[in-house]
Design brief:
The complex is a heterodimer of chains A (295) and B (330). With 295 residues, chain A is mainly alpha-helical. In chain A, 69% of the residues lie in helices and 0% in strands. The two termini of chain A are 20 Å apart. Chain B is mainly α and 330 residues long. In chain B, helix 5 packs antiparallel against helix 10, helix 7 packs across helix 8 and helix 8 packs across helix 10. Classes of the chains: A mainly alpha (295), B mainly alpha (330).
Chain lengths: 295, 330
């Protein structure tokens, strides 16, 4: 799960580098396996609704094990677990994606500013980051969630983004630091480019692959946090998500009744997606960074 | 070294101040206020609402100017007064917390330390060793990508609820029929109830450490000093030993960063198993809208994290000689 330093040593012609990227990407087993897990889950969420036979709110026979009529069986209330799973997966991926994007944007913005400006601004941002790093994110979320009356998927994503960006900011700040002292940044400064355009046009493109890796990790992390948040009953009250499915299964005696089909699919989907993302992250790291390619 | 620790300490003081201020601010930022919320939950005789509202506002001090409220809050905090719990009225919040905190510590401390130790060693062994790596890597990724509630439910289903057998109790901190005493039956009951929550926390964290260490060792083995040692003809055991020494520094920093995640995991795990620790209690506080208890637990957890961070800082100084002579500031 570590992202290693992979600043470009020398810039070759772009076309050759792109070709080289594809060459190694298609031969990297970790990337392919990880990506296929993620794509599988995304497809499930996208086209799954076409295969849903029973509405989520239609209550049929209770406690049915998986069968042709109910792919994933039915739960304590007689609701179709497959329908809940498909819509829950959508919600979970959506919250994860949004939370991951938000956290990446916050981490990038603050990381760039801190690394580029340095001095007092850097010091201040660092203190904020350290404070947030020390406060346990989920506990803070519980505290906020406990006081909030209504949560929605959007609020949930925003809360997750607001509490998980910290390590990304640190990492991006460190990378920016090492780029700022390079000659081409100095040249851009001399030629009178504005700070914003130096960051966006000189610094960011040189660590784009790194930023992408950071996003992947934040995306996976956001899915996990959202699952815990929902599991604790702090999610949107009328929504459905993988975490909410597990919460209901836990609350409504899925364990003593042996309704394993109620809580196994949602958790397995999370593990598949997040594990796939982490694996793809390592694969991509190897593709980008020749030093790490297997011997 | 003194500068390093002093700087860290300053950040901890700031963190505590920020956390306490968040704690104070949040109930005042909700639309309406906690008193309105509280009164909306109980049905009052018609006509008594205004009087009760006024009484509560005065009791909790919400009608004073904000800076006075803030100073009062700190005054109470310094005196160790976190208010009275509503959920377990009329116990003070500190006493309620004291009843639950031992369970959390008995769960968290062994899980964190053992997972860290085992994960690092297994990960270091797996690096660049084909057969072991091919098993450790997938298992590590699956474990670290697993949501705590799912692993907790799976373990409870398989080992406690009869999926495979009824080896352990499903929930609680000890059997309900027992009265806490220092008898063997009670201790045995404590242990059997402890195993599954511990295992949940241990396994997820173990996966993360193993993968992290594996990747770090590979990275270290590719660095110049390793190649130089190899070129000198040093045995690979020696090279790996030096690689491990370097790789454990980022892992130690990682431990400090992971504390929050681990505590979050403990909350979820305790809730799943109905294990009477602080995580279970904090959800009871949310469910019962016991804001004093909620705030108290939050502050208590923050203090715990800060203490743990400080211990890690000291260990870091012991492990990394550079911090002792002041070559690297952070």
């Amino acid at each position: 799960m570590t992202v290693t330093n992979l600043l470009p040593q020398s810039a070759g012609p772009t076309r050759r580098r792109r070709f080289e990227f594809l060459y190694f990407a298609l031969r990297n087993k970790k990337l392919l396996v990880g990506l296929s897990f993620v794509v599988l889950m995304a497809l499930f969420a996208l086209i799954g609704p076409f295969f849903v036979q029973h509405s989520m709110l239609a209550y049929g026979p209770k406690f049915q094990p998986p069968s042709a009529a109910y792919y994933f069986g039915t739960n304590y209330f007689g609701a179709d677990v497959f329908a809940e799973f498909v819509y829950g997966l959508r919600e979970s991926l959506f919250v994860g994606l949004l939370g991951g994007c938000g956290a990446t944007v916050i981490g990038m913005t603050l990381g760039f500013i801190a690394g580029y400006k340095g001095g007092l601004i850097d010091e201040a941002l660092n203190v904020i980051c350290n404070v947030l790093l020390t406060i346990p994110g989920l506990v803070l979320l519980i505290l906020i969630g406990g006081f909030l009356q209504h949560t929605s998927a959007l609020i949930e994503a925003a809360l997750i983004a607001g509490t998980t960006w910290t390590w990304a900011m640190r990492a991006i700040r460190a990378q920016t630091f090492s780029l700022v002292s390079r000659d081409f940044v100095g040249l851009a400064r001399l030629s009178g480019e504005k700070s914003r355009s130096i960051i966006l046009r000189e610094i960011a493109p040189n660590m784009s692959s790194y930023l992408f890796l950071v996003f992947i990790l934040l995306f996976g992390g956001a899915i996990l946090v959202a699952a815990s948040f929902d599991f604790l009953g702090l999610g949107p009250p009328n929504g459905m998500s993988l975490g909410i499915m597990m919460e209901q299964a836990s609350d409504w005696s899925a364990l003593p009744l042996h309704l394993w089909w109620w809580f196994v699919p949602p958790g397995a989907a999370i593990t598949c997606t997040v594990g796939g993302l982490y694996l793809a992250n390592v694969g991509l790291d190897e593709v980008f960074n020749p030093k790490l390619r297997a011997l | 070294m003194r500068r390093y620790l002093a700087r860290k300490f300053l950040i901890y003081v700031v963190t505590f101040w920020v956390a306490a201020t968040i704690d104070w601010l949040l109930p005042r930022m909700v639309p309406g206020n906690p008193v309105q919320l509280l009164l909306s939950k109980i049905s009052l005789q018609p006509g008594t609402y205004n009087a009760t509202y006024k009484l509560y506002m005065e009791t909790f001090g919400f009608n004073r100017p904000w800076w006075k409220q803030y100073l009062n809050f700190w005054d109470a905090l310094v005196h160790g007064n976190l208010g009275i719990s509503i959920y377990q009225f009329p116990k003070p919040v500190t006493h309620v917390i004291a009843d639950y905190v031992l369970f959390t510590m008995a769960l968290l401390i062994p899980a964190i330390l053992l997972a860290y130790y085992a994960g690092n060693h297994v990960g270091a062994m797996a690096a660049r060793r084909k057969v072991l790596d091919n098993t450790v890597l997938p298992i590590g990724y699956i474990l670290t990508a697993t949501a705590y509630p799912w692993l907790a439910l799976l373990l409870a289903f398989l080992l406690a609820a009869g999926g495979i057998g009824h080896f352990f109790p499903v929930s609680g901190g000890y059997s309900y029929g027992l009265i806490p005493t220092w008898s063997w039956t009670f201790i045995w009951s404590l242990i059997t109830h402890w195993v599954l929550p511990f295992l949940t926390l241990f396994l997820v964290a173990f996966g993360g450490w193993a993968i992290g260490m594996r990747n770090l060792i590979i990275y270290e083995l590719e660095s110049d000093y390793s190649h130089y040692l190899e070129a000198l003809g040093a045995p690979s055991r020696l090279v790996r030993k030096y690689a491990y020494r370097n790789a454990r520094l980022p892992q130690l920093t990682g431990l400090a960063l992971q504390l929050g995640v681990l505590i979050g995991g403990a909350v979820v795990t305790e809730v799943t198993f109905g294990y009477p620790g602080l995580g279970y209690l904090i959800l009871q506080a949310v469910g019962n809208e016991d804001y004093f208890l909620l705030q108290g637990i939050f502050l208590f957890i923050i203090v715990g994290v800060l203490v743990a961070n400080f211990i890690i800082d000291i260990v870091y100084v012991l492990v990394d000689p550079r911090t002792r002579v002041g070559i690297s500031g952070e």
